[in-house]
Amino acid sequence: MHPNEIVINDYVDAALDRAERADVERHLAGCVECRELVDDLREVRRQTAALQPMEPPSRVWTRIDRALRQNPRSARPMWQWLPVAALLVIGTAIGVRYVTSARPAAPVVAAPSPNGGGAAAPGGNDSANSAASRELAKSVEDDLLQAEQHYQRAITGLEQIANADKGALDPHTAATLQKNLSVIDQAINESRAALKAQPTSEPAQQSLLDSFKTKVALLQDTVALINEMRKGNDAGAARIASGLKQKS
Amino acid sequence: MTVPKQRQPLLFPSKSVTVGAGDTALVARVQAGDVDAFEALYKQHAARIYSLASRMAGSPDEGEDLLQEIFLQAYRKLGSFKGDASVGTWLYRLAVNHCLDFVRSRRAKMGRVTDTLDAAGSFEPVSPRETPLARLDLERAIEQLPAGCREAFVLHDVEGFDHKEVARLLGIAEGTSKSQVFKARMKLRGLLARRT
Question: Which of B34, B54, B153, B182 is the best substitution to test chain A (most A C-beta atoms within 10 A)?
Answer without folding.
Answer: B182
